[in-house]
Amino acid sequence: MTPIERCHQLLAELRNEVAATLPRGRETALLALLRFGDVKAFTDEPTPTARPGWKLALWLCLERQGEEHGDISADGDMITGWAERFLTDCDQLALTGEVLLQCASGELQLQQRDPRTFVAWPTSRRLSVEERERADLDWWSAYLTRQTEPRLTAVRAKRDQILALLGREDATHTASFDGLVSDPTIDRYYHQLGQTHVARFAHQHSYPADAAIGGVTFRQYTEILALLIGWLYRERDLATQDSDHTPIPRGESGLVAALSDALDTEAATIERALQPLILDRDNVAYHSAIPRRAAPPLIRLDDGRVVWSALGLLGEPLIFLTRELRHRHTQEYHNSAHLREGVFRQNLYRLFGDRRFILSAGRVELKRSGEARTDLDALIFDRKTDTLGIFELKAQDPFARSVEERQRQRDNFLHANRQVSAILGWVQRYGPDDLLVRFDEHAAKRFRVQKVYVFVLGRYLAHFVDGPEPDRRAAWGSWPQVLQIVGDDPIHRDKRNPLGTLFTRLHDPAPPRASADLDNRVISIGDFRLRFFPSFADMRSEEDSRA
């Protein structure tokens, strides 16, 4: 048995041991975990991220057979203490699982020292694919938070007024969801608060608003999400006055009716839209494959009730949604994937909005004598410098669930090597002006292309540690990298050579390195130990010093 196989075996045993510590009553345990975990969601900025073992903890609760209700001591400190211990154990299990995934992909090496002790070290000092992807997405999230902060500040400026209305017994109130005290001013405030949060989530999916999957458009999904976030904050503000932050299970049918009324939408549509936002026994294993990201917005209990999670609603709800849509509607999701390219193209074009740039309306097909060579996803011609940028856009999903899915993402992205060769071969044979005439004949009569730059951009990831080398004749990068280079605003008309600058800075970026705080970790569960060393040399040096 290899060290990886033995470690997997021990991990399964440890998982069962941790699951055995669950108290009686699935609902009671879930609410205790939510009460402990969701407190962090309101203080972790800019976007709350679930702990490594958060979804594993939910999985162990949901999969347990037995009574739905049970008893944990009513003492709040004891409940919180159990939840913290349980989550700590689940964190250690999840971190061990991450190490084993990195071992399977070749990013880490693993050796066994005794029956329940292992050591691991990285095969490279560069960031892994997952670490690079997480860093890019976290930067993008902070970027959007900065952009929406003025809007959020303006809404929050009214909070004292709203709290006063919530506390007034003589206020004119209208009926609202689950009897929560409300009036039109209160409803409008929390709806605006929810909409502002949703605006921060633009990086979490890449579908146009009118794209429909599962019989519901993304506009409807985000409208529902905005209301849920507003109601979450309203519940939080009411609880602040009562000093009680216990999550409240609610009837799913009542939630559907309230959303239907608030959005003036048929209940059947709301019910369809709500399902991909819910974690339950049927999909918990699927979503737990990505431990740190995309906590569930809603969790279903056994008796037709749901409870919402602040971590899920305020963290990465649209990543959870798109993952579940892919899970539920695989073929429809696959068939609609081409729509993401159009959104990506428009994101790119917003950076080049000045009139000095000529933009292709859509894809441009390289075809001559009936033979298609390749499609060009986006073209930008700079009339000031006579340069032409050709962009291959890869709008993949974030966060692979397995080594196999990551390999498919790698192969799809690096397939662009063939496209780069086809583009440059075409330019060499027919000249760069042939490309300009294909998307703007008028400009082709007035200008001549002096320089061609080829770019390959991935919406979420663009850097892999294995597979074929990217063609160095093109610049390869992720969309967050592009945003970091260009800055917060569209490219100014006086910029000297923006396409050339972008090409140079993407072509030769300084490779990020693993941070020092990850160099020495010990994963510990009972008598199981997994020690992570910064390098093989460090591991040998320490072990030799002990000998």
Compose a concise summary of this entry.
The protein contains 22 helices and 17 strands. It is an alpha/beta fold. It starts with a helix and ends with a helix.
Attribute tags:
22 helices, globular, 17 strands, alpha/beta, 3 domains, 14% strand, five-stranded mixed beta sheet
Kindly describe this structure.
The protein is of the alpha/beta class. It has three domains: 152 residues, no CATH class; 179 residues, no CATH class; 156 residues, Trna Endonuclease, Chain: A, domain 1. 51% of the residues lie in helices and 14% in strands. The strands form five sheets. A five-stranded mixed sheet has the order 9-12-13-14-15, with helices on both faces. A four-stranded mixed sheet has the order 1-2-17-16, with helices on one face. It is globular.
| Counted beta strands | 17
| Uncertain regions spanning at least 5 consecutive residues | 170-176
**Residues in β-strands, percent:** 5-15%
Q: Helix amount, in percent?
A: 40-55%
Average of per-residue pLDDT values: 86
Alpha-carbon distance between the two ends = 26 Å
- Described by the principal axes of the CA atoms, the overall outline is globular
The side-by-side strand order for the widest beta sheet comes to: 9-12-13-14-15
The tally of structural domains comes to 3
SS field, number of helical segments: 22
* Helix/strand class: alpha/beta
Radius of gyration over alpha carbons? 26 Å
The biggest beta sheet is recorded as: 5 strands, mixed
